Amino acid sequence: MPELPEVQTTVNGINSHAKGLIIRDIWTDYNSHFHAKSDNIKNPKYFKIFKKEILGAKIIDASRRGKNVLIYLSNDKTILIHMKMTGHVMYGKYEKNDKTWKAVKAGPLRDDPFNRFIHFVLNFSNGESMVLADMRKFAKVTLLDSSEIENSLHLSAHGPEPLEKNFTAKKFTETLSKKPNGPIKTVLMDHEIISGIGNIYSDEILWRAGIHPLERVKNIPEKKWPIIWKAMRETLLRGIDFGGDSMSDYRNILGERGKFQEKHNAYQKTGEKCKKTGCRGTITRIKIGGRSAHFCDTHQKLNQKLSKK
After folding, report:
1. Of 19, 58, 77, 291, which residue is the catalytic one?
2. pLDDT of res. 303
3. Predicted confidence (pLDDT) per residue in 264-294, tens digit
4. Which residues lie closer than 8 Å to 174 by C-beta, 6 or more apart?
């Protein structure tokens, strides 16, 4: 699932390519009876309302909340896209081919197999389109009143943003301490505690900070919290700098792969030697609450005495 750096990379791309464009047409083949009463475009009745609301509107800005893309329109409405497991947003010149859409020009948009599964299209005034590719069709697209975004059921339960300037090391410690008995990796991934961190970046944050993923929050020494906070910021910013992680199927607005997967120190590195300077450890994989965790067996030691309490 795209995490904070991938979503921010997508938002940056939307602002670079689609800001100021007017929506001339909307298409989707999402259509599921399982969503018959839901407020997203997989519900055909809702899609009709959605389409009527946004036709003719101009894109004025885009931002991110947690793992959600927010596209602000000139009519005081905001399109929310959650890319879920396999979704990614792209921009370019597309044409409809039989029952789906295809990029006109050769290149990543057309030739990368992960970019073929297009299920939502916004056609713009300049002849270009913004599309949502979603191989497993899990993504969510809905419409919010711009003035009520934070109160929306889609966003109201989200915790603070980890890269906000006012989210200090002290606030970080206080926030995560709301779940004192939780394993630190699980708490980092809890979007009600902190927004936008998932499996990949939690592994990389804890490797950088030297913290075992099973360490209970209450057992982490006070002096370690600023180290974890710094590791979190550095890791997430590095993910953005490298254009996100494309180990799976994430692609940026131009259909291109990110490069953060080339910089992993822990995630999916099972059996490899630890890259930390001076460390002779090996990356190990365990399961925590049904999710994989990757860590160094040497510089990320679990406090055995405290773990038994």
Report:
1. 291
2. 83
3. 999 999 999 999 999 999 999 999 989 999 9
4. none
Residue 67 annotated among the catalytic residues of the structure: yes
pLDDT given for residue 172 in this prediction: 98
**Domain shared by 287 and 220, yes or no:** yes
pLDDT grade for 304, boundaries at 50, 70 and 90: low
Of 2, 5, 162, 183, the catalytic one is 2
Q: Note whether residue 155 is domain-resident.
A: no
Does 5 qualify as catalytic in the annotation? no
H helical segments located in 38-87: 44-54
Q: Do 130 and 256 fall into the same domain?
A: no
2 is catalytic: yes
Flag whether pLDDT at 221 surpasses 90: yes
pTM of the model: 0.96
Q: In this structure, are 10 and 86 located in the same domain?
A: yes
At residue 265, the 3 state secondary structure works out as coil
Are 138 and 175 part of one and the same domain? no
Q: pLDDT confidence of 306, banded at 50, 70, 90?
A: low
| Separation of alpha carbons 110 and 278, rounded Å | 45
3 is catalytic: yes
One domain, residues 235 and 118: no
Q: In terms of residue numbers, what domain contains 271? A: 169-307
Question: What integer is the mean pLDDT of 85-99?
Answer: 94
* Residue among 14, 133, 131 nearest 69 (CA): 14
- Secondary structure (3-state) at 205: helix
Judged against a pLDDT cut of 60, whether residue 73 lies above it is answered with yes
Within this chain, do residues 131 and 204 fall inside the same structural domain, yes or no?
no
Which of the residues 67, 140, 216, 257 is marked catalytic?
67
Residue 157 lies in a domain: no
Given the residues 3, 6, 204, 256, the one annotated as active site: 3
95 with 189, same domain: the answer is no
Which are the contacts of 129, defined by CB distance < 8 A and separation ≥ 6?
Answer: 91, 92, 93, 94, 101, 121, 122, 123
* Separation in Å, CA 276 to CA 191, 234, 243: 29, 16, 23
